[in-house]
Amino acid sequence: MVGLLASCGSKNAPAASSSGSTASGSTSTNTEDVGDPVKLVFSIAAVPTDAHGAAQKVFKDTLEEISGGNITVECYDSGSLYGQDTEHDALKNGDVDLIYSSASWLTDGSPWVSMFTAGYVFQSYDHMTKVLNGDIGKEVFQKIADEQGILPLGAYYLGTRQVSLSEDKQIKTPEDLNGINLRMPNSDAWVFLGKAMGANPTAIPFNDLYLALQTGTVDGQDNPLPTVQSAKFYEVQKSISLTNHLVDSVWPTINLNTWNKLTDTQKGWVMEAVEAGRKACDEQNLKTESEVQDFLKEQGLSIYEADVAAFADHVLNTYLNDPISDSWDKDLLAEIQAMA
User: What is d(CA 253, CA 20) in angstroms, rounded to the nearest whole number?
Assistant: First the structure.
């Protein structure tokens, strides 16, 4: 989309974009290579108080500054333009240029990506970012682009997901989740993870989750602790069990046609802005994770340790003994696990 006007939180829906090969580019300022002015529309379901929600504005501000206004970004947050259940179709159709995606949302078009949705594939933040923001990630993201027409540009740390319940109950092993209606995001990959953990998964969009917890539609949910704080789930929950089942990330993802219409210089600017957003998001979530348990205890929540080894064994065996893993690159999985 060619244009110069952009602002985060704009209330008016944009026209379809018409801007924007690889997730890398030159930062040359050669005027012949800069390209025509471009406006990118960036829609996310996250709230601005989430670290990745705030990182959207870091991306916008950085990109507009380093491009000298050649690229502007129109931001929508909190699902105000597209919700989680519609944003991927909008991205593929070119109705929006950028969203936050993740492995779980990309498995319908690329079943092999479900490997990255499995619990306990990544052992830590350092493990995850070394894989997804390194050479393996570049190859994975390019293959997704070839298959689906949308290109992830990197991986932002969302946090390590834990189980939280509306009752005060310790979840120590998968057997303790039997009969628990656990909210999961609305995709087959997420639902399978809930089953693999031993729960009864119930798919509910994030924007509806607080009410679902408040009304008892679900018994609990899984999210990183910073999200429990920022979304105020602690107001309607009583306990957290530290299952550490998924080192979670979100992937800023661009429509491939939009990307391919950018010059190499513009692509370089975009990637610099992606990296600025990643650093801001990761640093904030790591800091919050180190502090948030004390806050949640002050709100009256009980925090319990889970038997992580028991969960890891149960979850990975469930995946590997199910047809869902038939499309996985087992050699790649072994390579990833060896990098922990």
Answer: 12
**How confident is the model over 282-323, as pLDDT tens digits?**
999 999 999 999 999 999 999 999 999 999 999 999 999 999
Chain centroid offset of residue 59 CA = 15
Backbone angles phi, psi at 53, to 5 degrees: -65, -45
H runs (alpha helix) in the chain = 31-34, 51-66, 87-93, 125-132, 135-148, 188-196, 209-215, 225-230, 256-261, 264-298, 308-320, 330-338
Could you tell me the fold of the domain covering 160-247+289-338? D-Maltodextrin-Binding Protein; domain 2 (3.40.190)
Give the number of other Cβ atoms within 10 Å of residue 211's Cβ.
11
- pTM for the model: 0.80
- Rounded to whole angstroms, the Cα distance separating 58 from 67 reads 14
* Residues 153-181: tens digit of each pLDDT: 999 999 999 999 999 999 999 999 999 99
User: Side chain identity at 226, as an amino acid letter?
Assistant: P
Supply the DSSP symbol for 163. Answer: E
CATH 3.40.190.170 intervals, the chain: 31-102+126-158+250-287, 160-247+289-338
